[in-house]
Amino acid sequence: MAYSDKVIDHYNNPRNVGSLDKQSPKVGTGVVGAPECGDVM
Amino acid sequence: MKLPLYFDYQATTPLDPRVLEAMMPYLTNEFGNAASRSHAFGWTAEKAVEDARAQVAASIGASPKEIVFTSGSTESINLALKGVAELYSDKGKHIVTSEVEHKAVLDTCKRLESEGYTVTYLKPTKTGMVTRAMVEEALRPDTILVALMWANNEVGTLNPVREIGELCHARGVLFFTDATQAVGKVPVDVQTDHVDLLCLSGHKLYGPKGVGALYVRRKDPRVRLVAQMDGGGHERGMRSGTLNVPGIVGLGKACELARTELAKDTEHSRNLRDYFESRIFAELDHVALNGDREQRLPNNSNLSFAYVEGESMIMGIKDIAVSSGSACTSASLEPSHVLRAMGVGDELAHSSIRFGFGRKTTREEVDFAIDQVVKAVRRLRELSPLYEMVKEGIDLSTVQWQGGH
Fold first, then answer.
1. What is this structure's pTM?
2. Are B311 and A38 within 8 A, CB to CB?
3. Which residues contact B383 (CB under 8 A, 6 or more apart)?
4. ipTM
5. Cβ count near B288 (within 10 Å)
6. How far does B403 lie from chain A, in Å, by closest CA?
7. pLDDT mean over B44-72
8. Which chain A residues are Cβ-neighbours of B312 within 8 angstroms?
9. B7: Cβ–Cβ under 8 A, 6 or more apart, which residues?
């Protein structure tokens, strides 16, 4: 089963990924997900 | 280089051209049924089968009469375990196996449990090994069979087969070993290793798919089985069904090559595997080796790339064909039962990749694979919040996770 072009596009060009400045008073931090499933934000 | 590159030699191997050459006559002009006793077509086929039987026997130190041809290891395992359990049920109904066996063994044992047998599933060491002491502790007066793999198909760990075989013989318990991954990679000798039943498969050793063999010891002790397939009584009554002559010829040739080229094949794949690992460990941090560093198949490297998820790894290295212990890449929703049994955490199990090196693998291909892996891991870790946390000094085991799945 091959991946669709859309999935590959998102994989190669990830959207909305990265880190914000934790020191900024305007940025709140939190972690959610299950690392054993590979989905962590 | 023609992409994708193949690094999944534990899953299957390409047919060796010499094997195909040996098979060709039996796929074309020599089409006789090996059971036809009344004409030359049958005699030719029968001779080809008997020559192959001798080749298979020689590759494991057996005598030709101890070889039963089957469709592959799954069938051999079913025949060995069910056949022995049924025949020896008067003596006892206890079987010893391990948690890291192939599903063909585990599911056959589950079936036997539903039929009233008791099975002990040994938990292996952290490197995936079952020791003689573990087996000794599990043996009971009603134990009839010990079924343990020679080499693990995921992590490549080698069991101390000879020690376990000696123990079984001393205690009068039959010993079956699944040598599907071992034949052609490590020396296998059913005499010195005290094996009573052994399975092997053609397509794991550069032979054709759909053919395998079961070794059934004939002397000291003589092992008997109840056939699991009713029919014409082929293979001395142990496996009915018209013989797959071209497949058997191919298996024979593949076993002969596995025997005569063992040292060469082993050295070739070990050199490439060791080179691969030395570069991976030099270029990436937080990489764990799954399995036993020393007691391991020479062609196997099972690595966990922490903080990177298996499926995204597979996507990132799409030009190389590998398998992952991640549930995302398998039919089941559970990550590798082997890594779990070894006590590898779910996170690392999910990020595990199995690399296999074979007869056709080249140094150039290995370099390409390393570059792909290093690039993919670095890129995915840049996106990984877990890796970022670790780099900040947070101990992930102290984090309480909410939600998920």
1. 0.94
2. yes
3. A14, A17
4. 0.84
5. 14
6. 6
7. 98
8. 11, 38
9. B320, B321, B322, B355, B356, B357, B361, B365, B369
